[in-house]
Each structure stands twice: as structure tokens, then as C-alpha cells.
Amino acid sequence: MKNILSKKSENLSIKKIDWSKIQIDMKEKLGNGIYESWLKKIDFIEEFNNYILIAVSTRFIRDWITSRYLDQILQIVKIHKKEISRIEFTIIEQKKELIDIRNKANDFKNGDNKNISFIKDSFLQYNRIDPNKNFENFVIGPSNKLAFEASKKVSEDLSHYNPLYLYGGVGMGKTHLLNAIGLEIKSKRKVMFISAERFMYQFVKSIKSNDMVRFKDYFRNTDVLLIDDIQFMNGKEAMQEEFFHTFNALIDKGSQVIVSADRPPNKLSRIQERIKSRFSGGLVVDIQNPDYELRYNIVKTKIDEFKLSDSITLNLSEEIIKFISSEIRTSIRELVGALNRINSFSRIYNKIPTIGETKAILKDLLNLSESKVTIDLIQTIVCKFFKISKNEMLSARRSRYLVRPRQTAIYLSKILTSKSLPEIGRCFSNRDHTTVIHSVKTIEKLRQENKDINSNIDNLKNKILYNKENEIQS
Ligand code: ADP
Ligand code: MG
Hints:
By secondary structure, this protein is of the alpha/beta class. It is 56% helix and 9% strand. It contains 23 helices and 8 strands. The strands form 2 sheets. It has a 5-stranded parallel beta sheet, with helices on both faces. Strands 1-2-3 form a 3-stranded mixed beta sheet. α2 (19-30) crosses α3 (32-39), α7 (145-156) packs parallel to α8 (174-185) and α21 packs across α22 (451-466). The protein is elongated, with a radius of gyration of 27 Å. The termini are far apart. The chain binds adenosine-5'-diphosphate and magnesium ion. Adenosine-5'-diphosphate (ADP) binds at residues 133, 137-139, 144, 168, 170-176, 298, 332-333, 336.
């Protein structure tokens, strides 16, 4: 074993691939939509002599990426390292597994792989305002109403609130709002829209190339400075110094400064106190997590946007719309990503996905954790489907009309929960684990032989995974 390990590390080439650079290129070449929906979640595992190993969380995503984007990804990888001739996938459903695999892969390395995030260079190209993120398509709910109104006010009436500081978690719409402000003012005034990361990068680069004068002029001449994700500007004394001066100079001459961050000013770490206190001196507004209604309205709005941009309409059923709105809760970004996926699915297969397909497409985003799926729930749903009582299902009786439902419930318990065979047996009136195995085998066989049975079981599976709320109502 030792020999294999040392041989492997010898084979590793000197210049390692920096996955963050590949990600930047993928985003640029394949577009933000595709990147956000499919490629961002690829985990880089390890680089070998002539191939790389990457991981995604479901088979569906792997197949999707393989069939559509793999060639382009490989080309991008080759730009960074021409020796790479193929890409291999592994499916890693759980994050823990990923960490284990990473640790194993790290055994092959010398431990010097601290990726410093890389910002693509091209001077003053960063001032890009996206016309698709405007006030009109920003959907309002209680969680973001104040932030929206403050942003509108600022774009109508400069220096009304100065600075305006917007904060909130990832994917809540901060960049969208900053962008909308820029878009609104752009035609009338000089606008500079930049992420704090890029501001730092540009700063360092200007020092190196002796170009500080231009840097200063550039920033100090603007009427509106929008700085996104200020939390990334930490440490770096000289840069904070420069920022502070720019900031003061702008405010003194009546220019508007708008800042976004993932936290309130006083929680920013490694940022000078005086900068924090200047941030707090204007208007500070937060964006909170969207509630169900806002999520639902966003889904509806996005579907309408797809209708405008494509000839095919995405006629998702109300059931699916409600399902997505209730299940994808972490952020609006995830919600939008989920819809982009569904949209590309329906364009490529030329059909609207069923609820089952929706779940497969979104599996990694959904929190359909097994804890929600209990054996009790499975029994309830199966009994209802076969119109028998739970007592009958759990009885010792072996009448035909009871055996099949019982076997079905046992089978579903096996595939939808992580309970062991004896545990499952116990939930079915202490049946032996061999009975459990027999039931699972029987149903597996029936599913292969009989189309109707197979589709009934798929239906039941969907009911169990999704219908919890409906269950409670009925
Ligand atoms: P943040 O900068 O807070 O991380 P973004 O502004 O990038 O989040 O938003 C993530 C995605 O969600 C973007 O595609 C954005 O257009 C969309 N989005 C966020 N909030 C809204 C909203 N209220 N209405 C419509 N789309 C939204
Ligand atoms: Mg952002």
C-alpha cells in the first residue's frame, strides 16, 4: 500500500489545477445560468496524471453534465493543464463522504493546496451592470420590502441616505438590488459597481504597476459607488486606508455610496472601527429569509420570465409550483437555480416534468430527509392506497389482499428509510428479518415483471416523499 501511495505522489505533476479558476472560466464560457444550476456544485476531488476526479451529488446531475457540458468543461480544464485528457465522476451524496474522500486524496499530497480565490483580470472590466436584474423584476415581500424601498429612494434622490448599507444572507437579493440601483442611475450619472474582492484586487494590482493615480481618480470621480460583499474586505491595512479615503472623499462631495454585506456593520470582522462606524452612520437595512408567499410569487414571476424569453412555455402544474415554493427555502438563489434546472429539463426533453421528475432533478436541493419519512407514514399511505386498515396490515393474517400491501410497505420502508432489516421487521408486528428480505425481493421482482405494479409503487413513493402535508389535512 505504501508503495502505491508514494508512486502516486511521484506521478502528480508539479503545477496543480486550481479549480476556482476553472469555475470562473466555466461561468464565463457557459453562462451564469448553467453555471449556477449545474456546475457550481461540482466538487473537485483530485487530479491524477492525465485525468481529474470530480464529484456531484446525484446520478441525474452527473448524466446531465456529462451529456451536455462535459466536452466544454474538459476544454476549459485543458487550457489550464493540457495533459488532462479526461474527467471522471464520482457520486457523493453526503458531505461527510466528501470530506473523507478529500482526506484520502490529501494523503497523496504535501498539504500545500491552499486555494486563494482568483479574480480574473482585465482592467476596469468589472463595472458590469446586468440589465436583467432591475427593480421591475424584483419581487417584494415582508422580508425585503424595506431594502427595496430604500434602494428605490436612493436611486431617485441621491444622498438621501448616505451611505446605504444593505445586509442579508447568501442569495437573498443584495446584488440584485445594488445592480438595480446602478441600472436606474447609469444613464444620468457616473456609476461604479464593484465587489469588495475586486476592489482589493485592483488596488493591489495598481500598486504593483505604479498606477495608483489612475486607480484613485477612477474611484473618486464617480457619482455613485456600489460596493458588493464588503465582508470580504478584511485585513489589508493599506487597502482599508485607501478605501476609507475614497469613501470620505465621495461622501464629502455628495456622491452616493451603497454597500452590501452578509452581516451588519458592527459584526464585520477585521475591518477598521472607523469604517464600520461610517457604515452605521447612514441607513442600515437588512433582508431577511423569504417567507412562503414571497417564494411562491418569485416562482410565478420567474416562470413568466421564461415565457417571455422562450417560445416554449413552462406550464408547471400548481402542485409543482407549490412543492418548489415550500421545499426550497434556503435562499432565493437556490429557488431561481431550481427553476432554471426545471426549465432546461423541459426544453431538452420537450415536456413538463412530473412531480417525481421534479424531485429527481432537484434531489440535491431538497430536504426530503428520511427523518420525515417514517415507517408509520409509509404504512398509513400504503393502507390508504390499498384500502385496508392498519390493524389488518399489522395482523398475522395471510389473506392475499393483505399480503401484497404488507410486502409493499415493507419494501418501501427498506428503500425510503435507513432502518435495518430487523428494525423494519419490528415495526411490522415483530416479523422476522427474513420475512423482510422476502418481501423486498418479491416486490423487486414484481416491479420488473409488471408495469402496473411498478407504476403504482412509483406513485406511492412520490406520495410518501411529498404528501406529508396533504396527509395531515385529510
Ligand atoms: P445575494 O447578492 O444576496 O447573495 P443575489 O442578488 O445574487 O443574492 O440573488 C440571487 C438570485 O436571486 C439572483 O438571480 C436574483 O436575481 C434573484 N433574486 C433575489 N431576490 C429576488 C427577488 N426579490 N425577486 C426576484 N429575484 C430575486
Ligand atoms: Mg451577492
